[in-house]
Design goal:
The chain is α+β, with helices and mostly antiparallel strands. The protein has one domain. It is 45% helix and 20% strand. It is built from 9 helices and 5 strands, in the order E-H-E-H-H-E-E-H-H-H-H-E-H-H. Strand 3 and strand 4 form a beta hairpin. Helix 1 packs across helix 7 and helix 6 crosses helix 9. The longest helix has 14 residues.
C-alpha cells in the first residue's frame, strides 16, 4: 500500500517522533509541484521526450511531478535522512549528505554548506513524499530506473531513464556547489 504525505507535515511528525513510518525496507518517490519541478529541471539538458515520461499526478488539487526515486532498508531512517538532515560542512566533506539534498542545492545554485534552510523551505512548500514498504525494493528500483516508460531526472546512480549528459550535468553541478 502506498502512503503519501506533505513534507512540512512529515517534518513536524519526524521531529515530534509521531510519523508512524516503520523501520522496514521500501521504495519512495519525491513529488514536486509542477512549477518547481519545471524550474529545477530547466537547468538540465533534458529532452521533451524525457519530460513527457515524468510521472505526473494531481495531489490536493495541484499538479505534481515525480522527479526522484529511492529505496531504503529502513524507511524511517531514510525519511529523516532526506527531511531533517543538516547540511553541515563536516557532513558534506565526509559525503554523509542526502544525494537528493545535494542535487537540489546545486540546482538552486546554493552553496551546500549554507543551503539547509533554503532546501527545507522548498521541500516543505512544494513536495510530497510517497513511500511503500517492500521486502526487496532493489528489484523494483532497478526496473524503474531502467524503464523506457518513465523518467526520474534527479536520480544519478543506476539511472537509465535520462540521457548520460543529464547525469553528467547533475554531477558537475553538485561538484561545483560542494563547499
Amino acid at each position: 500500500m502506498k502512503n503519501i504525505i506533505k513534507v512540512s507535515v512529515l517534518r513536524e511528525q519526524l521531529l515530534s517522533k509521531t510519523s508512524g513510518i516503520n523501520k522496514e525496507p521500501g521504495i519512495y518517490r519525491w513529488w514536486f509541484k509542477e512549477d518547481i519541478a519545471k524550474s529545477l529541471i530547466s537547468k538540465l539538458p533534458i529532452t521533451s521526450d524525457e519530460i513527457d515520461k515524468i510521472q505526473k499526478q494531481v495531489i490536493d488539487g495541484e499538479k505534481y511531478w515525480a522527479l526522484y526515486l529511492g529505496i531504503s532498508k529502513d524507511m524511517l531512517a531514510r525519511a529523516k535522512w532526506h527531511v531533517t538532515q543538516k547540511d553541515s560542512i563536516s557532513a558534506i566533506k565526509r559525503g554523509f549528505i542526502s544525494t537528493l539534498r545535494q542535487t537540489i542545492s546545486a540546482l538552486l545554485d546554493e552553496d551546500m554548506s549554507k543551503s539547509t534552510g533554503c532546501i527545507n523551505q522548498l521541500m516543505d512548500d512544494n513536495c510530497y513524499w510517497e513511500w511503500e514498504y517492500d521486502q526487496s525494493p532493489e528489484n523494483r528500483e532497478s526496473a524503474e530506473l531502467s524503464s523506457k516508460n518513465v523518467c526520474y531526472p534527479l536520480n544519478i546512480k543506476k539511472n537509465k531513464t535520462v540521457k548520460k549528459d543529464v547525469i553528467k550535468c547533475l554531477m558537475s553541478l553538485r561538484k561545483k556547489h560542494r563547499k
